[in-house]
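Recap for those who missed Tuesday's class. We walked through two folding examples back to back. For each one, the amino acid string is listed first and its predicted structure tokens come directly after. Nothing is annotated here on purpose, so try labeling regions yourself before you check the end of the notes.
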Amino acid sequence: MKIEKYEIEALRTEKYDLERITKELSKVENIRFVHAILGLQTETAEFADVFKRHIFYGKEVDRVNLAEELGDILWYLNIARDVLGVSFEDLSSINIDKLKARFPQGFRESDAVRRDLIEERSVLEQATKKRIDDNFYYNQFEKEVEDCVNYATKIGLVVSLSGANRFRDCVTEYCKGL
């Protein structure tokens, strides 16, 4: 195939709904996800490059650089997990739930080859939904407590930052006891 023909045929399949794409890219959540995705791509490529240079060019493995890149990867993962509304603890639990479904007796090649993707998805959906729902309700609670603090400050009940922090702690403790 001539390259000119390829260019025409390939571009024919490009999604070109700029209005919808622009609308999606204007959402803060999507901007943060794109930032995390591009950052993860960059940092994981830099991490991999250390081994490419070691294997193919005979360079020593630079462990200081590897630690730096892992830290950068963690930073971008933190953005993505924050946008998703889960903690690192949640992600760890979700991952272990999936691994238990995939490898019920520990790793076996036969389980790795014959994965039950429907069961894995079911486990992931249950584990993720529970944690995201729990975090949603916790975040709603935090927002309501913050609204109480703001109102108390507005009406003069709380007049200092330390007073606001004490008031927030009292409201939080009281509500948790209900």
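Example two. Treat it independently of the first, because the proteins are unrelated.
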Amino acid sequence: MELNISKSKFVMQSNFAMMLSEVKIQTQIFQWHWNSYPDERGLLCYNLNNSANKIDGNRNKALGLIKGRSDMVYYYQSSAYMIELKNAKGKQSKEQILWQELLESQGFTYVVIRSLQEFKQFKDNLC
């Protein structure tokens, strides 16, 4: 039993470290974009995907929160680009893949970004 608890703690710590890494990537991207493109402030937006607790989660679902939604959306020149952030080892969940397929079937662009440098390249390719 103790081995399972330790293993469970390790998995939780690994997931937490992965999440922090993705949060760091998102923070770097947002701050770089905010500072580099002041005329575009408000066009790169965070999607509130994680609720603080079960009550908030239920409320957010009732308000229209969709599981698997991309982390960010970038509105640029009459288009919306869905941006999913992952660290180097991160993989999309089943719900994220379904969301990607749904959005792409409607003609939207969906990208998985793993670093600030990748976002800069993505942004450069749009210009």
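Answers for example two:
The two ends are 56 Å apart (CA to CA).
The longest strand covers residues 79-85.
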